[in-house]
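Incident log, support desk, overnight shift.

02:14 A customer reports that sequence design results differ from what the structure should imply. Their input is reproduced verbatim below. On-call engineer (initials T.W.) acknowledged and began investigating.
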């Protein structure tokens, strides 16, 4: 390093110290790894930055603020290796040119120059930016806070940290999984008949302890451990954390210990990985699917744990009354998130020892699975690295005793805690356990967990529950109790994709009695398509707040959707069940599917539909199969339904997890439908085309999306779809449009080579059908647009072409429809005048009107006739 380079380096270091980066937050020649996905025996790629500045200790990508290095030129390629450091900005020193460049590092794409700093202006630059560049401000700006209180720094990309942690978590998971497989293979070389349940948990304990040893060695806390053999490393880490006396034994087979330690020792560098990343990793890597099924547990994603904790105004409580209890703790995801939040709120002058003692006092959990208890303790050890053990994670079942037992560990912890946060197990109790719990026990485990927590009414409550808690009748007393106990309630619905092992939406409930907002009831949702964005930015799909909720003597309404104003506006509309009959298709009780469904005509079989894909499209059946009609094969009486009459055929299973759940086809051929479909028969003078347009449109799909079932379109909800009262003219237009769409689509199926033109006509008519139906609902323009905006970015299944959403093309089609309607009115009026002219004659005013109408008709038809005339002229020539 030249003298000028050293002077610039020292000036940057002094500038960082002057704005709050104490010596323990500055690391010279700091090494970090990018953990490439390669063979388990390969080494990580280790990078070095000349100087790194951190907001907290121990250093990691989560609290990295700035990096400093010397660059040969101003190319961004020299900055790229520093992305994995985790700092939002790095200073590239150019001593040969007499300046430094401050580079912004985005979550994706090339780094960009934020500003140029002359060598003589370095000290002044740091003083000018002290308010923005100080450690705590940069830390808050770079993290996803899930609130709108983070400072906005133009060099901080809030998506950088989630992107890096997600990538590294995935890479580390892959690497550790490969190491696990290596260990299994080595074990089976000696014990070929061994079953996984005999050795997997001890193997997980072994990997867990060796990983902790590797972390301490890489961080420099115990650098001499790099020279230990596997057995010495295991003993060292157990002694360091004073856990060898109480912890269950790790796998004691030395050949496997040696394989594991060599793979971890030679192939990983954990210097810069955040302990939160490692801690959250354990729950997914070391808790098997079998354990989850047995205990009815499900891993809580880090983003959701952080989100819930930050919905609670913990800072409003006295520093000594922030006692956080996590029952059903598993790997303690909420305690880890709470530890991070408590750390932010503590005074900066507290020593590491004082902080650790405070955390141990403030955090506690219970868990019935012994290995999960060990994982939780180690996860907290890592989250408070490098401090020793002492965490209060008790091995106990929350449901081991009746809720009125004062000696229950669960009850004692509830009484001690000010803040209770958890993701309880879901599902029903087995009959024997239910008998032991008492008559007041809730129907489900999640319901009983919430009931017991509400008996003590902690100052703050955060819980993750199935979406059904907001609607299901058996939860009504709990909704009422929650509303009676807390004046501030936040409800956020997350999609099932948020939980790896979940098959339903979940709801995050945060409640407290701190007066923080004039609108204390908050509702938010994250849609499936927005969940990745939520992980990166903390942004929900929508949020609304109100000042009061509706209550009855035995229930409270804790949820309203983004489209509630739409449903309020349509609340007086008739329901689909008033204008149509909805019945499930035929179901067979004997024989296989192949015996009852045929692709070819057979005796006692009739044309029908069995599957959605390839057969059901909006407004028409693209193809058909043949269904068995023998009464003795039937499960019920659905074969007696009037299948030969005109009807609409509707899918029963959801078309997608997005907002487009349902579509329907017109059938006038007498097709039968399998039980994967509903048959919908019109009442009165409603046409099947109108029914199909109503069921396939945005109102019906938005309506079904907001009901709790996420597996199928239940007939009870279909019958409740609000429908408009149509005028004769509206009925005729919608019927004609649907028939037009079916005609063009039929031509397309018959002549695929014309698909380009016919696809455009079908899209135009589809838009016009939706527009005509929406016009009949007569929603205010703002509500109609809100409804359509809810479908932004949503793929519309079942269509033979891409659906572009309700943007410019829709608006153009809507205008064309209005022009067609105006033309239709013009023609009708013109014909009335023509008839009157021959019957009784016209007044002068009517004659003038007739002439104007004739001109309007000619202008409308001119483009069509011009094409014909051009073709005729061409033939003459």
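02:41 Re-run completed on a clean worker. Output:
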């Amino acid at each position: 390093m030249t003298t000028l380079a050293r002077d610039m380096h020292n000036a940057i270091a002094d500038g960082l110290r002057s704005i709050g980066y104490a010596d323990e937050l500055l690391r010279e020649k700091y090494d970090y790894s990018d953990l490439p996905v390669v063979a388990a025996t390969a080494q990580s790629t280790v990078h070095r930055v000349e100087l790194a500045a951190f907001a907290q200790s121990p250093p990691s990508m989560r609290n990295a603020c700035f990096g400093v290095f010397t660059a040969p030129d101003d190319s961004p390629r020299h900055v790229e290796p520093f992305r994995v450091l985790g700092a939002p900005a790095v200073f590239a020193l150019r001593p040969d040119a007499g300046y430094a460049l401050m580079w912004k590092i985005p979550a994706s794409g090339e780094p960009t120059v934020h500003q140029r700093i002359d060598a003589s202006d370095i000290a002044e630059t740091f003083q000018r930016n002290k308010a923005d560049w100080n450690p705590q401000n940069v830390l808050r700006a770079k993290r996803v806070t899930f609130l709108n209180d983070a400072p906005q720094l133009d060099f901080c990309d809030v998506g950088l940290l989630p992107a890096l942690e997600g990538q590294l978590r995935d890479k580390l998971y892959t690497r550790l999984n490969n190491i696990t497989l290596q260990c299994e293979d080595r074990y089976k070389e000696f014990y070929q008949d061994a079953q996984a349940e005999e050795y997997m948990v001890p193997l997980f304990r072994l990997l867990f302890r060796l990983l902790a040893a590797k972390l301490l060695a890489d961080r420099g806390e115990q650098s001499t451990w790099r020279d230990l053999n596997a057995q010495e490393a295991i003993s060292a880490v157990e002694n360091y954390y004073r856990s060898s006396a109480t912890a269950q034994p790790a796998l004691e087979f030395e050949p496997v210990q040696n394989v594991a330690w060599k793979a971890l020792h030679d192939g990983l560098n954990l210097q810069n990985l955040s302990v939160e990343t490692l801690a959250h990793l354990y729950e997914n890597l070391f808790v098997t699917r079998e354990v989850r099924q047995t205990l009815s547990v499900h891993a809580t994603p880090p983003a959701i744990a952080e989100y819930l904790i930050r919905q609670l105004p913990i800072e409003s409580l006295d520093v000594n009354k922030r006692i956080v209890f996590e029952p059903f703790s598993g790997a303690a995801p909420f305690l880890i998130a709470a530890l991070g939040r408590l750390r932010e709120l503590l005074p900066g002058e507290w020593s590491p020892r004082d902080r650790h003692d405070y955390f141990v006092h403030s955090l506690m959990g219970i868990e019935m699975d012994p290995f999960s208890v060990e994982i939780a303790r180690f996860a907290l050890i890592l989250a408070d690295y490098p401090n020793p053990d002492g965490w209060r994670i008790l091995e106990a079942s929350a449901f081991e005793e009746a809720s009125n037992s004062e000696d229950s560990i669960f009850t004692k912890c509830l009484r001690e805690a000010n803040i209770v946060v958890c993701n309880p197990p879901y599902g029903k109790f087995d009959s024997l356990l239910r008998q032991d719990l008492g008559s007041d026990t809730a129907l489900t485990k999640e319901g009983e967990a919430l009931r017991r927590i509400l008996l003590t009414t902690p100052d703050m409550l955060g819980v993750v529950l199935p979406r059904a808690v907001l609607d299901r009748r058996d939860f009504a007393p709990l909704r009422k109790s929650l509303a009676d106990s807390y004046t501030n309630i936040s409800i956020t619905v997350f999609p099932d994709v948020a939980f790896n092992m979940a098959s339903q939406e979940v709801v995050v409930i945060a409640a407290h009695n701190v007066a923080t907002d004039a609108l204390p009831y908050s509702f938010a949702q994250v849609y499936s398509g927005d969940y990745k964005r939520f992980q990166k930015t903390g942004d929900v799909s929508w949020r609304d707040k109100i000042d009061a909720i509706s209550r009855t003597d035995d229930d409270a309404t804790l949820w309203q959707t983004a489209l509630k104003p739409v449903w309020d506006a349509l609340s007086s509309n008739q329901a689909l069940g008033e204008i149509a009959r909805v019945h499930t298709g035929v179901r067979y009780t004997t024989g296989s599917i192949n015996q009852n469904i045929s692709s070819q005509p057979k005796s006692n079989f009739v044309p029908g539909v069995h599957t959605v894909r390839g057969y059901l499209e909006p407004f028409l059946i693209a193809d058909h199969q043949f269904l068995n009609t023998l009464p003795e094969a039937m499960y019920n009486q659905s074969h007696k339904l009037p299948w030969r009459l005109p009807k609409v055929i509707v899918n029963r299973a959801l078309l997608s997890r997005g907002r487009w759940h349902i579509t329907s086809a017109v059938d006038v051929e007498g097709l039968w439908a399998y039980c994967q479909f509903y048959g919908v028969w019109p009442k009165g003078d409603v046409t099947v085309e109108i029914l199909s347009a109503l069921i396939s449109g945005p109102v019906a799909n938005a309506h079904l999306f907001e009901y709790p079932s996420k597996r199928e379109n239940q007939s009870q909800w279909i019958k409740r779809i609000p429908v408009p009262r149509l005028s004769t003219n509206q009925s005729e237009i919608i019927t004609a449009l649907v028939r037009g769409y079916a005609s063009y689509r039929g031509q397309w199926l018959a002549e695929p080579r014309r698909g380009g033109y016919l696809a455009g006509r079908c899209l135009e008519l589809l838009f016009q059908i939706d527009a005509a139906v929406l016009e009949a609902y007569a929603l205010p323009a703002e509500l109609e647009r809100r409804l359509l905006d809810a479908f932004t970015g949503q793929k519309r299944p079942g269509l033979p072409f891409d659906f572009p959403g309700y943007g410019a093309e829709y608006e153009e089609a809507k205008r064309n429809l209005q022009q067609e309607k105006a033309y239709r009115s013009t023609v009708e009026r013109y014909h009335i005048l023509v008839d009157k002219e021959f019957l009784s004659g016209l007044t002068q005013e009517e004659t003038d009107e007739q002439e104007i109408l004739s001109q309007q008709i000619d202008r409308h038809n001119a483009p069509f006739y011009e094409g014909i005339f051009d073709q005729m002229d061409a033939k003459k020539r």
